[in-house]
């Protein structure tokens, strides 16, 4: 399927938008800590926010032992992420996840399994997760995934270009990846756990947006440190700054290690408080997660019935 919302165009390379930026790491940590302690979403609205979180999940499997069967089961869950009785009790008649995210050779299985559902298939590409295959191969991999039917491509950036401050080269590389995506939307994974400083995270975010990324994404899920709130706060500030300069709404995708309903709420609060409520909708916000849906379902069951069910009653997603 293709998206009805437009692709971002980015801007010319403009190093003056980020060169002098220095992020104060302890201030970012303090601000991130207040987001999780101040209750900004009232209890009675939490079920609605958790249902919103489901619509923002990029339901993911990125494992070496993925099979067509596993992808088909994941797609069945993507079409019906909540049990029928919970849906009815919550007054919902339709609910699906934001996308299903798989490796390129799994795209065709996911496309077939999701036919008619309107759920886009996202694929990681460009030598995920390290991104250290030659550029022509990385571009060919993007084109392959798009030909297979991926509507969204999650690319990884070359960390060395950030660590050595080669911002123009980073811009040029991401621009080429954007062209290779054709009509597919592009999410740029910064792999923030590899970037050493929040200042680098801010600069890489800005370059990725200038190069025309539709989303910026924190992590592959394979770095030692994946999505954290201070990193996300830094990226969200960059999103806001980019929007002020260009009028473009670039999306945000935290990913890696996010497993609980509490994580979902923390990130939704971050988007609402630091950005805009518009940045809590699936066209601008996704949560990349292979194992969060089960906990959200558990929490919603508790909301509806007052009890927790055993984890073995829930799908492993
Ligand atoms: O892009 C999504 C990530 O790979 C998911 O990471 P996770 O398996 O830690 O949820």
UniProtKB/TrEMBL annotation:
It catalyses: 2-deoxy-D-ribose 5-phosphate = D-glyceraldehyde 3-phosphate + acetaldehyde. SUPFAM superfamilies: Aldolase. CDD domains: DeoC. GO terms for cellular component: cytoplasm. Its EC number is 4.1.2.4. SMART domains: DeoC (SM01133). One of its GO terms (biological process) is carbohydrate catabolic process. Pfam families: DeoC. It is found in: Cytoplasmic granule. It comes from the Bacteria. The keyword Nucleus does not apply. One of its GO terms (molecular function) is deoxyribose-phosphate aldolase activity. Pathway: Carbohydrate degradation; 2-deoxy-D-ribose 1-phosphate degradation; D-glyceraldehyde 3-phosphate and acetaldehyde from 2-deoxy-alpha-D-ribose 1-phosphate: step 2/2. Keywords: Cytoplasm, Lyase, Schiff base. Belongs to the DeoC/FbaB aldolase family. DeoC type 2 subfamily. This is Deoxyribose-phosphate aldolase. It comes from Pseudotabrizicola alkalilacus. The gene is deoC.
């Amino acid at each position: 399927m293709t998206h009805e919302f437009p692709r971002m165009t980015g801007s010319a390379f403009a190093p003056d938008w980020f060169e002098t930026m220095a992020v104060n790491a302890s201030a970012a940590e303090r601000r991130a800590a207040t987001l999780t302690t101040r209750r900004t979403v009232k209890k009675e609205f939490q079920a609605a926010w958790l249902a919103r979180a489901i619509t923002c999940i990029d339901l993911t499997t990125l494992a070496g032992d993925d099979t067509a069967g596993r992808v088909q089961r994941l797609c069945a869950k993507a079409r019906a992420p909540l049990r029928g009785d919970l849906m009815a009790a919550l007054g919902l008649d339709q609910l699906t996840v934001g996308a299903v995210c798989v490796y390129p050779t799994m795209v065709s299985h996911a496309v077939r399994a999701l036919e008619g559902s309107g759920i886009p298939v996202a694929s990681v590409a460009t030598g995920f997760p390290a991104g250290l295959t030659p550029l022509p191969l990385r571009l060919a991999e993007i084109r392959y995934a798009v030909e297979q039917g991926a509507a969204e491509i999650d690319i990884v950036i070359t960390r060395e270009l950030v660590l050595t401050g080669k911002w123009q080269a980073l811009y040029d590389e991401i621009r080429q990846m954007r062209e290779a995506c054709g009509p597919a939307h592009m999410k740029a994974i910064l792999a923030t756990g590899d970037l050493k400083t929040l200042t680098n995270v801010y600069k890489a975010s800005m370059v990725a947006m200038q190069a025309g990324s539709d989303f910026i994404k924190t992590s592959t899920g394979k770095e030692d440190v994946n999505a954290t709130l201070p990193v996300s706060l830094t990226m969200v500030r960059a999103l806001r700054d980019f929007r002020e300069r260009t009028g473009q709404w670039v999306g945000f995708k935290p990913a890696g290690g996010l497993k609980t309903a509490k994580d979902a709420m923390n990130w939704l609060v971050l988007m609402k408080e630091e950005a805009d409520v518009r940045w809590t909708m699936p066209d601008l916000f996704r949560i990349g997660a292979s194992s969060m849906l089960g906990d959200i379902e558990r929490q919603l069951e508790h909301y509806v019935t007052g009890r927790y069910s055993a984890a073995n009653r829930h799908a492993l997603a």
